[in-house]
Amino acid sequence: MKSSFALLPIASMMATGATMLPALAPIAVAKEQVDPGKRLFLQCRACHTLAPGEPHKVGPNLGKILGAKAAQKPGYKYSKALSQSGLVWDYKTMDHWIENPSAVLVGHKMVYFGMKDPAQRRMLIRYLSRETKSGDPK
Amino acid sequence: MRVPRRTILAGGAAGLIAACMPRQTFAAERADVIVIGAGIAGLNTALNLADYGVRPIVLEASSRIGGRCYTADDVEGRPEYGASQIGASYARVRDVATRFDVKLAQGANINAPMCFGIGGTLVAKEDWESSPLNRTVGEERQYTPQALIGHYMRKHMPWKDIYSWRSEEAKAFDISFGSWLRNHGASDDALRLINSGLMDTNVDDASLLSMLHEYVYTLDEIETFADKNLDRFEAFGQISSRVVGGTQRIPEAMAAALGDSVRLGKAAAIIEMNETGVVVTTLDGSRYTADYIVSAVPFKSLSSVDIRPAPQGSIGKAIAGIGSGRQSQIFMHTNAPYWEGDGLDASIWTDTGPVTLIRQQIQADGDRRLVTALAFGEKASQLDKMPHPERAAHVIDFLSGLRPSMKGKLEVLTVQSWEEQPFINGCKHQFEPGEVNAFQDSMERPYMRMHFAGEQVRRTAVGMEAAMESGEAVAIQILERA
């Protein structure tokens, strides 16, 4: 059990418990103020840059990715599997990829569990399309 | 074997300090999210939240940033007490290093090859297979003692990817590591040797599932090595990077980017939650309020915080139950190349004596003075019972007996034990058989307004990258909830 004896002074100080909690304002930045696509990209950004010409990270730069052939960026070492896949990043392929990369291709090296919610994937792809200057995703 | 929490509290600083706490209450400081623990898990949580407009306060109990990223800046040569290897796939660690201009360099902890002390007699690596001291059986014989785990892991690894360990089928693997080894025909002496180098108390106390995940994460990279007689740490070191100036430069840079939202010397004593928010009271009587709280400390440390209402069920059991592995270390300098004296490899693995590993490190500039003796599990437990000076003398005595060429050639730099580290209380979380299945889901979810980060909440990665990944995951959870 908890150390009620050791914490006695503070325990008595806070004996009224929950009633002492002040009324709180909601988190400063409301959900709708951050682009939902940008929020979803949080789980991608450690590995990927978006704007064309930005440096590669552990994953490749994604500039103009939608509509492009897979594994084409110079200066990035893609997996053999992706290089030889013949994939084109159209909307449908990207959607499947983000849902579960390993279901699309065996032997790729992107470390990602996948995004199950189709609505979230839609928002993320819209964000990717805009930020990578890819134009309208087809 | 677990140390009962009551013992930890009675012996720990937390209880003593709490008893002397000021009675006066102060006006609570307000943040959006309070993070406890300024290791890289907590700092990455805070950085991600701050980037998305959410204001964090990070409360660090000790006077130092970094948790188990701990470079001994006050010791000659600045050895690493804790994390030292940045794997090639550690995307998040590498990203913060780039963002905050912390330099990495290839190769982390490159140590001299090993010879083996078996029952007090030294055997060269190349003589091991045919040595009468090698009492392992069949194909085990070709693997040196510290490489036996890797042999069994490679041979019987059920997966090739880092996701499968979370699948339904994987639940059947949350059994004792020892029973799995026996089922795969490990000999009694292989089990004995594996036990000697284990951080857990015993092969039968370790969850196989947790260990399989740890191995499968590095398997691809390690597989590229022809030499199968390296342990996982040694092999990973060669394909990893080190942080120039010490691993601790990474959390420090992260904390610097967070500015005054990181507070040192603020140990959470009470965490109180209701439908609208959280109040944290620290041992010095400071109070903080927020919408959400993130625990980014080892569960063993969180277990001595008074959480109200007290967590029940699976998460309650996880916080109270997840233990830590032990690691006790003696850092030494050698004043002469003792390995030239007997022609054996400079590092040693030994089944007898107070330590298991003696690593003779080869620095990037060729400096070979640093020698580190490490004890794990039960050996560390025994060693930790001695005061520091006696501990070092005892180890040096033992080494001088085991390897006469070392006699008079070792000087103690410092002594460190993770078990003794205030507010950390251990080297690394350890899952017992069944605990991954019992705890994993509840650790990944929030308890009321409390979210859980830290290496113990592994998803895909291990080590430092797992800590970073957990911080990112928790930031996403909170942003989606806000």
Describe, in plain words, how this protein is organized in 3D.
The complex is a heterodimer of chains A (138) and B (482). Chain A is built from six helices and no strands. By secondary structure, chain A is mainly alpha-helical. In chain A, helix 4 crosses helix 6. Chain A is globular, with a radius of gyration of 22 Å. In chain B, helix 3 runs parallel beside helix 17. Chain B is globular, with a radius of gyration of 22 Å. The relative contact order of chain B is 0.20. The N terminus of chain B is likely disordered. At the A-B interface, helix 1 of A face helix 2, helix 4, strand 9, strand 10 and strand 13 of B.
CATH class of the domain at 36-131 in chain A: Mainly Alpha
Oligomerization category of the chains in this entry: heterodimer
Reported for the largest beta sheet of chain B, the result is: 7 strands, mixed
Would you tell me which CATH topology of the domain at 36-131 in chain A applies? Cytochrome Bc1 Complex, Chain D, domain 2
Global Rg of chain A: 22 Å
**CATH superfamily label of the domain at 36-131 in chain A:** Cytochrome c-like domain
Question: What's the rounded overall pLDDT mean of chain A?
Answer: 82
Give the amount of beta strand of chain B, in percent: 15-25%
Give the neighbour order of strands across the main sheet of chain B: 6-5-16-17-18-15-19
- CATH secondary-structure class of the domain at 5-68 and 248-322 and 431-481 in chain B: Alpha Beta
Number of helices of chain B: 17
Order of helices and strands of chain A: HHHHHH
Category from helices, strands and their pairing of chain B: alpha/beta
Q: With helices defined by DSSP (H or I, 4 residues minimum), what is the helix count of chain A?
A: 6
* Biggest β-sheet strands, sense, barrel of chain A: none
Q: What is the name of the CATH architecture of the domain at 36-131 in chain A?
A: Orthogonal Bundle
Spatial gap, N to C terminus of chain B:
41 Å
